[in-house]
Design brief:
- This protein is α+β, with helices and mostly antiparallel strands.
- The protein has helices at 50-67, 85-90, 92-102, and strands at 2-6, 20-24, 29-31, 75-82, 110-112, 123-130.
- It is globular and about 40 Å long.
């Protein structure tokens, strides 16, 4: 599979994402459901703690990716849904550092929403990976 990152501007590189990623010759595509701060038994974790919820959602995303034979570096799109965009942006370094370290510079969207599936959830992360 070939991957071409398309960045007509450069300011986003410091934030750890890309404007577009073109893939060709991909053999597999994985569409991941939104990952939240829950444990393997479906118990909500880290109520009221945005940074801990970010880390747990990313942990859960990595578990799903690994189970399917993928890595964070295979993610080409990642979308963020949050009930508090300002609080998420104040903790963006947790996302940036994790993804950049893994070699992931996926594009996507950040959306502020009035609530997620459970009112205690502050963030949900959805991803698409290709190989």
């Amino acid at each position: 599979m070939e991957r071409r990152i398309i960045n007509p501007w450069n300011w986003q590189a410091e934030q750890g994402w890309s404007w577009a990623i073109e893939t060709s010759g991909a053999q597999r595509v994985l569409y991941c459901a939104g990952q939240v701060s829950m444990d393997g038994d479906g118990k909500l974790l880290h109520v009221g703690d945005m940074r801990a919820q970010i880390n747990q959602a990313l942990d859960n995303l990595e578990i799903v990716l690994t189970k399917a034979g993928y890595h964070l570096s295979d993610v080409v799109r990642i979308d963020y849904y949050t009930t508090d965009a300002d609080h998420l942006m104040a903790n963006w370094d947790a996302i940036k550092n994790r993804l950049v370290t893994a070699g992931c510079h996926a594009g996507g969207v950040l959306l502020g929403v009035s609530r997620l599936a459970f009112p205690e959830l502050l963030i949900e992360i959805e991803a698409t990976a290709v190989q």
